[in-house]
Amino acid sequence: MTDRPVTPLLDTISVPADLRMLKASQLRQLA
Q1: C-alpha dihedral (8, 14, 17, 22), degrees to nearest 10
Q2: CA–CA separation, 12 vs 6, rounded Å?
Q3: pTM score of the predicted model
Q4: Cα(30)–Cα(20) distance, integer angstroms
Q5: pLDDT tens, residue by residue, 1-31
């Protein structure tokens, strides 16, 4: 079992191009 926090939005990002797929509200949440 890991002690990592749950980060579902961050987990969807693997390359910088993935950021372009996000909505503005999601970008604010990610920041």
Answers
A1: 0
A2: 12
A3: 0.64
A4: 13
A5: 678 889 999 999 999 999 999 999 999 998 8
User: In the structure encoding, which two tokens stand for residue 24, read together?
Assistant: 């503005």
Q: Is residue 11 within 8 Å of 17, Cβ to Cβ?
A: no
Q: Tokens 């579902």, residue?
A: 8
CA distance 1 to 30: 25
Q: Given 3-state DSSP classes, what are the helix, strand and coil percentages for the chain, each rounded to the nearest 5? A: 55, 0, 45
3-state secondary structure of 27: helix
- Token reading at 15: 């390359």
